[in-house]
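Hey L., structure's done. Input below.
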Amino acid sequence: MLMALLLDRMLGEPSRWHPLVGFGHLAHRLEKHCNQSAHPLIGRLLGLAAWLLVICPFIVFSYFITHLAIGKLEFGWAANCLLLYFAIGARSLKEHALRIYRALLSKDLAKARLGVSMIVSRDTQNLSESQIATATVESVLENGNDAIFGAIFWFLLFGGTGAVLFRLANTLDAMWGYRTPRFIYFGWAAARLDDLLNLIPARLTALSYAVCGHTKQALQCWREQAHTWYSPNAGPVMSAGAGALNVQLGGAASYHGEIKVRPILGIGEQAQPRHIASATKLVEHSMLLWCVTTTFIYLSLIYLGLIYPGLIHFGTGAYSA
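Output:
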């Protein structure tokens, strides 16, 4: 886990040939062929079948390479590291948010609107400075779970295979999980399965935000506001994050030409450009918290003799990983 996070911090996402980009193209082509029924039951079954068809081969492949060994030389540790590296996007999330932040500081609203249009699904053509800041902070907080902590959680349980499952499921939810006429039935399975996989990670992410920010406010906002949000997992993450930052998120936003009145999350003033930088720092501090906590737990379990460190075999010798 630590090696994967270090790789992401040093290299960021691959600029070309990123596996998730190829997966997205594959999922888009499959959806065009499978999303052919407006019947509620048949549409849901087709969506579930497409979800399994596009994800299962990658799960099998990731399981195989994480258990790969040639002779006595094991490569599973390297495969696990690379799979988690490809599954997370901490550096790219921070860089994109800070590009919007710098555009707002220079009063270049056109550039800021273009930047925020790449990370949110709402209409961005006429957003004000505060609305751009709100959308960006919301995206940073929510993607902190989707692009970082959720993948780490499933990685800690099931290695690279768990990280791949979570990230691909999250990608399909982002592509298919909309309540539009096209995806209302076909995308049902993708949305519900993503909700299931996020059930625990989202709450751990919310707790991390609370610990690393204004803790009392974050916990209060989480308790009082999370249930008002339309997503059962985004609600805790965004309400706790908003409370931790002492900022107000949510409110009315335009989606596909229609105004959607969303609940207010958080407390304090309306989002400003500086809150974007604060949100990226909150995510980074939460990542540090996860690293310290998981390392402490891991070493404690080894000390207590409850688990043993992985072994890499070279020839006749064995060296702890």
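The first helix runs from residue 2 to 11. The longest strand covers residues 247-250.

-- N.
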